[in-house]
Amino acid sequence: MDAPLVRAARGGSQIAFARLVDMHQQALRGFLRRSHGSWAEADDIAQETFVTAWVQLPKLRDETGFRSWLFGIAHRKALTAGRSARRSAVRDNAWAGEAAMEASGDVGPEDRMTLEVALAELPQDQRAALVLCLGEGWTHAEAAQALDLPLGTVKSHVARGRDKLAAKLGAGS
After folding, report:
1. What pLDDT shows up at residue 26?
2. What are the DSSP calls for 1-27, one per residue?
3. pTM for the full model?
4. Cα(119)–Cα(27) distance, rounded to whole angstroms?
5. Which of 69, 95, 119, 143 is close enough to 132 for a disulfide, judged by CB 3.0 to 4.6 Å?
6. Domains in the chain and their CATH numbers?
7. Do 74 and 45 meet the contact criterion of CB atoms below 8 Å apart?
8. Cα separation, 151 vs 137, whole angstroms
9. What is the mean pLDDT of the chain?
């Protein structure tokens, strides 16, 4: 039943694709709500899924497998969103802990200066990625876009920068 609409959508018919969306959106949102989270999050992921499906439609190999292909995209997007949310929560908790330490007065000016010196010793790209992701709470993807670097490079810069800072700050204690 999907194959004729998929063929038409591949040909550029937005009406055909809109019909595919109408046919599958309720089931897709229900799947996401039950398997991956809240209603709002499920709706956001469903929207992202349909946008991705429209863009990736030429890559669909089997026109009769549109539904399973669509749900696969949704599942992978939901998993990515979940991982991102968990990383953000860990990063937010760590940053909140550091902010609380600073606010409580446990971190003195000399410790802040030591951190600044250690940061200054990092390569510029690494320092920028580390400050954006850990200091400002940006996602790796946001930092990659802002710094015009590949996502993997930003992730590597953050991990290596964190390790270098830990070594420098640990050695100074």
Report:
1. 92
2. --HHHHHHHHTT-HHHHHHHHHHHHHH
3. 0.52
4. 49
5. 143
6. 3-81 (1.10.1740.10), 108-172 (1.10.10.10)
7. yes
8. 16
9. 82
What does the pLDDT look like over 134-158, one tens digit per residue? 877 888 988 888 788 899 999 999 9
**Which two tokens mark 172?**
């100074």
CA distance 102 to 130: 19
Instruction: Give the other-Cβ count within 10 Å of 28's Cβ.
Output: 22
Residues 122/134, Cβ–Cβ less than 8 Å:
no
**In 3D, which of 129, 157, 162 has the Cα closest to residue 145?**
129
Tokens of 7: 């063929």
User: Which DSSP helix (H) or strand (E) runs through 169?
Assistant: helix 151-172
Residues in Cβ contact with 28 at an 8 Å cutoff, skipping those fewer than 6 apart: 46, 49, 70, 71, 74
Rg of the chain over all Cα atoms, to the nearest angstrom: 22
